[in-house]
Amino acid sequence: MVRVSERYETGMRVRRQVLGDAHVDRAEAEKTPLDAAFQSLITESAWGTVWASDAISLRERSMLTLALLAATGNFEEIPMHIRATARTGATREDVMEVFQHVAIYAGVPRANHALKLARATYAEMERGDE
């Protein structure tokens, strides 16, 4: 029997707080034996350690995450983290500031693509799409 750690439990709580129950429930339902250990690693390290820290706010973490994803060209997770801003307190203005920073320090094409994803995701959110 696998024992769930306190860090994992914290990670799941924070993950649900930031991403929402519907997202986490879908991700958990899609988990397979192949990626179960990886999902546990992410839950414990990213959500149970980094995101759970109270050293900076969830709003600030949200902004940092969006900047890092855009700056490194990891665009697949940008819509998920744009949706999370509804729970973290990062405003649309915050997101625009983030992508302006990305444009200056990491390149206009990356910021432009991230902004395109943000616009599309905000439009989906306004329509009530998940």
Automatic annotation (TrEMBL):
Top-level division of the source organism's lineage: Bacteria
Short name of one Pfam family: CMD
Location of the Carboxymuconolactone decarboxylase-like domain: 37-119
Listed GO MF terms: peroxiredoxin activity
InterPro entries linked to this entry: 4CMD/NDH-1_regulator (IPR052512), AhpD-like (IPR029032), CMD-like (IPR003779), Decarb_PcaC (IPR012788)
Coiled-coil region list: none
NCBIfam families for this protein: decarb_PcaC
PANTHER family associated with the record: 4-CARBOXYMUCONOLACTONE DECARBOXYLASE FAMILY PROTEIN, CARBOXYMUCONOLACTONE DECARBOXYLASE-LIKE DOMAIN-CONTAINING PROTEIN
Name of the featured protein: 4-carboxymuconolactone decarboxylase
Organism: Roseivivax lentus
